[in-house]
TrEMBL record, chains A, B:
It comes from Bifidobacterium angulatum DSM 20098 = JCM 7096. The keyword DNA-binding applies. One of its GO terms (molecular function) is transcription cis-regulatory region binding. Residues 6-62 form the HTH lacI-type domain. The keyword Membrane does not apply. It comes from the Bacteria. The lineage of its organism: Bacteria, Bacillati, Actinomycetota, Actinomycetes, Bifidobacteriales. Signal peptide: none annotated. This is Sugar-binding domain protein. Keywords: DNA-binding, Repressor, Transcription, Transcription regulation. InterPro entries: HTH_LacI, Lambda_DNA-bd_dom_sf, Peripla_BP/Lac1_sug-bd_dom, Peripla_BP_I. It holds the Pfam family LacI.
Length: 351, 351
DNA sequence: CTGAAAGCGCTAACAA
DNA sequence: TTGTTAGCGCTTTCAG
């Protein structure tokens, strides 16, 4: 600590009271225990001296540091982590907490990092994945307050915050229908992600609700690279869709590539709604692509808020929803849907 | 703290020595002060009991927490922060430090966050930008050990770690030349970024070294969206380049789009080397695009290492370079160049 | 070589 | 209503 902080002792001396009195006042536990006049004198000197509590010293007594541990994989390999971290940090900061972020992508051994975090007195953990997966939570975490973020506990015990995948696709598809599309393709992901299930269901529901037939020839679940591009090419040539729901940026790119090769213009000849962070498209395109943004910020925010409510053992009722992060770029209005984010309270955890 | 850690007291009791002796041993300050036999007995019980020092308690005495503060903007809006955070965390963890990450993009007031970090006893700061800019460092940071990451101090006083932009473009261009390209375009950025200067210089140097004339009609500095796309279109039609150096993913996308519209295939009819994280292209394309990856991980790693060396006041000589994060996807070999990263030691800082 | 004692800044039980 | 005391886990003189 380079900077010298003023201590309670100093306040006590300046005010002519004891340290315990100062402690009571600074912790707002003075109601009916310290004379109001004394209390306000204490507060005044504290203000004058710019007193800030020393969390380290406090934690030595209270076993509570107001530090949250944020554990995630892939922070370096996906662009999503940032939003989640920012959301979590925003909530943390709002309640006077700090976030220690550790990621386990590299050589970092997860258990070691967890141990280190525990040594630093972390009050609870956020365990994040970069896309919703059934997750086997590390045992080392289970005896702490814990919230999963964009992940689902394999045992359904640990509370989690997840995106509402169904609504994402439902809203996007409805948007395409309202735009007048008649043959709407679903360009999805053939890996077994939770998002894939939910979104395909949302797509089907929207189609059905509009009285349109479901045609599985319009569904192309692909992985990547050449095979994906060829699958989307076939979709273009045999089905001639006029609307595309795309699982993410990468899938949307196949559609763009195929359209360009056929002299079709997105936003004129075909319509595309893509899910995701739309970073590349936001920078490259005229606003032709309608995007549903995944609520990473919100998930982080809510997960942290939930975690704090567990740590402090108090309800979250009065906590308002944060304003959503603004889209990077103006988007072809109207935006397909409000961004949903489901907060699942599946149970609580041993303390 | 939920978990009960074993304390020095317990070790002392079990071993039948005093706490001070244990402290001496656990801190490797026992040389010539504690009998070797006793020391090893202490170490043995410590091992048996799984002793880990309590950093909070220690910091109360030592004023050193082994916590590093990582401050950056835009963690949520760029995909780069993750790599830098991971690099910094990897280095930190290697030396027994922890990273507290705060980002200042949202409503977070930077000075408040810095104060909070200081209260938590942060030993020093990493101040990061998401692309190298001349940076006016917050005054609140100047009395602490401090390293800039992907940023340059406006006063040239604060040490910084930056990417070697010149070499990036030099290597990429040389790669295109060796591949047989005769008319190599530079698709750059018209915003005044440090990267732009350095890379254009690297491009020119490579061109010159190959005895090729520099033709500024081959240089297209663009911003984004429609105007950018049209500028690249003009470049295609009037200059017919056969090789492209692209400032980043977004610029590379314009080249792809234009190529597709003209029936040209990247990797066959034209060659492209793009700088950046190539996340989208890695997932979407066959390996046609050669990529120079920006050393975000390395910058984070080195900046943290440098910072620790400042905090502990010891040289960095014996510290080896980390293995670079693996590319997401196999890349058209040979990779254009090793990734350079310059470590600038511009001076030291008041403690 | 080793241990007793003091104290880092704070909180909490208890006396006064 | 307030102060005294003890102690969180650790480091650091200072005696022995």
């Amino acid at each position: 600590m380079v900077w010298d902080m003023t201590t309670m002792k100093e306040i006590a001396q300046q005010t002519g009271v004891s340290v315990s009195t100062v402690s009571l006042v600074m912790n707002h536990r003075d109601e009916g225990r310290v004379k109001a006049e004394v209390a306000s004198r204490v507060r005044e000197t504290a203000r004058k001296l710019g007193y800030k509590v020393n969390p380290m010293a406090r934690s030595l007594r209270t076993n509570s540091t107001r530090i949250l541990g944020f554990i995630s994989d892939e922070v370096a390999t996906t662009p999503y982590a940032g939003g989640m971290i920012l959301g979590a940090q925003t909530a943390a900061s709002r309640f006077g907490y700090m976030l220690i972020t550790v990621s386990t992508d590299d050589g970092m051994k997860e258990d070691n990092e967890i141990d280190a975090l525990k040594r630093y007195g972390t009050d609870g953990f956020l365990y994040a994945k970069m896309s919703n997966r059934i997750t086997d939570v590390p045992a080392k975490l289970l005896d702490y307050p814990l919230v999963l973020t964009d992940a689902t506990d394999v045992n359904g015990k640990v509370p989690s915050v997840e995106p509402d995948e169904f609504s994402i696709a439902y809203d996007a598809t409805t948007y395409l229908i309202k735009a007048g599309c008649k043959r709407i393709a679903y360009v999805g992901c053939s890996e077994p992600l939770l998002a894939q299930e939910g979104r395909l269901a949302g797509y089907r529901a929207a189609i059905a609700e509009a009285g349109m037939p479901f045609d599985d020839k319009l569904v192309a679940n692909v992985v990547n690279n050449g095979p994906a591009l060829r699958a989307v090419s076939r979709l273009f040539d045999s089905e001639h869709p006029d609307g595309f729901f795309c699982f993410n940026d990468a899938r949307a790119w196949y559609v763009y590539e195929c359209a360009a090769r056929r002299g079709l213009t997105v936003g004129k000849d075909i319509s595309v709604v893509g899910v995701d962070n739309h970073r590349v498209f936001a920078e490259t395109l005229e606003p032709q692509l309608t995007t549903v943004e995944l609520p990473h910020f919100e998930m982080g925010y809510w997960a942290a808020t939930k975690l704090i409510s567990m740590i402090e053992n108090r309800p979250m009722n009065d906590i308002e929803w944060p304003k959503t992060t603004a889209p990077l770029t103006p988007i072809d209005a109207p935006i397909p849907a409000k961004i949903h984010c489901t907060l699942l309270e599946k149970g609580s955890v041993a303390r």
